Amino acid sequence: MNPLHKRYSKEIDQILDKYPEDQKRSAVMPLLYIAQREAGYVSREEMEQIGEILSITATEVASIVGFYTLYHDHPEGKYRIQVCNDLPCAMRGADDYLNALCDRLGVQPGETTEDGVITVEAVMCLAACDKAPMFQSQSSQGIAYHENQSVDSTMQQVEKWRQESAA
Amino acid sequence: MNDRILLRHLDIKDIAKLPVYKQQGGFQAFEKAVTKMQPSEVTDTVFDSGLRGRGGAGFPTGLKWRFMDKDNWPHYVTVNADESEPGTFKDREIMESNPWQFLEGVMLSAYAVGATEAYIYLRGEFWELGHALDKQIAKLEKEGLLGDSLFGTDYSLRLYTHLGAGAYICGEETALLESLEGKLGQPRLRPPFPPSYGLYGKPTVVNNVETLANVPLIIEKGADWYRGYGTEKSPGTKVFSLSGRVKNPGNYELPLGTTFRELIFEHGGGIIDDKNVKAIMPAGASSSMIVANDEALDTPMDYENVPNVGAQLGSASIIVVDETVSMDWLINKTLHFFKHESCGKCTPCREGTFWMQNLTERIHHQQASWDDVILLNDVASNIKGKCLCALGDFATEAVTTSIERFPEDFKQVAPIKITEDETKAVA
Question: Which 8-state DSSP code applies to residue B239?
Answer without folding.
Answer: E
